[in-house]
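Quick check before the chapter quiz. The format below is the same one you will see on the exam, so make sure you can read both the input and the output lines.
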Amino acid sequence: MVTAARIAETLGGYRVMRGHVRSADRLREQVRTGLPYSAVEALAERLNATVGELGEALGVPARTLARRRGVGRLTAEESDRLVRLGRIAALAEEVLGDRAKAARWLRQPNRALGQLVPLRHLDTDLGAREVEAVLLRIEHGVYS
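Here is the expected output.
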């Protein structure tokens, strides 16, 4: 199970979240007020991806992301999607053992997902649940 603190760490941790996030309530509050844009950059760096690739996974057009960068904050809906990506990234790190393996796994076609790239599958909640299910099968030794 991925904790709120672990998700916050994948999104840049203390420096990006402007304080410690140790509970789901605190993370939920930050999502409702909108996460800082720098959380997108932190997750992109963690996954060795571009901000544009993360934008696609978030379902946010490049121009909208550029506006958010200027404002410095995401909307609540965009923040919720980013937390979903952070949760899956944290789960991948836990299951696969380290950040580099998780980043590679999320960016390569996966047979269990019909040869789709897991990161591109995260633009919907249903897709995220499918990726999560594959990771949980790997964790339990059930190969797909």
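If your answer matched, good. The longest helix spans residues 76-96.
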